[in-house]
Fold these 2 entries.
Entry 1:
Amino acid sequence: MCMVETADETVNMLYDATVTARKNHKCSECSRVIAKGEQYLLERYAFDGEITTSKTCAHCQVVREWLQRECGGWLFGGVAEDIHEHAREGEYGFGVKKLSIGMSMKWQLRRGGLWPIPVVPRITGASLPL
């Protein structure tokens, strides 16, 4: 089940831009370090009366894109939980399992360095409204 289906409210997006890190940052979705020189998505949004800033690495943006296509949306800070649930359900194929594993490993290769940015897996369309 897609987490966005149970969301009560939406955010009011104030600003978003792809920027290059001038210092290290922490990804709001997978918690890995976004290194200086790496591109990431910077977003500012209002939710529940507060303004929040989110920084999302390029890898996690792929997971968000899949959730957007498959579920019609995603929840800030809930992307990892949502993709892990979809991977456990088993009907989405290896591409979704790979995204789940990548997030679990914070996109880090065992031998060092980062995974290549993944390709957005195919969607099933099962969760989209008719």
Note: The chain is about 30% helix and 25% strand.
Entry 2:
Amino acid sequence: MTTVDHGYQRSGREVALRNRLRRIEGQVRGLEKMIDEGRYCVDILTQIEATKAALARVQDQILESHISHCVADALEDRDVGERRKKVDEVVALLKNFRKGR
């Protein structure tokens, strides 16, 4: 079995992810407008949190797809080095995510 080193695996959910990202883009534009209008700080901060949560959901879906496809494929590969590489990659990602929160 040959594994893919990089690239987003098609999961059939690309349209939904793209739509979600467009909504997030709208939220960011809304944040800019709120700042331009001098809206109340708490309202802006609340909207920032909502935007961050929406991005986190996209991140979760892509991570799930990565583990379900790329990592699962690598774990089925006979190449021990390739399996180790994918496991190390996921561990590094999770550590990086934890640092950012």
Note: Confidence is low (pLDDT under 50) at residues 1-5.
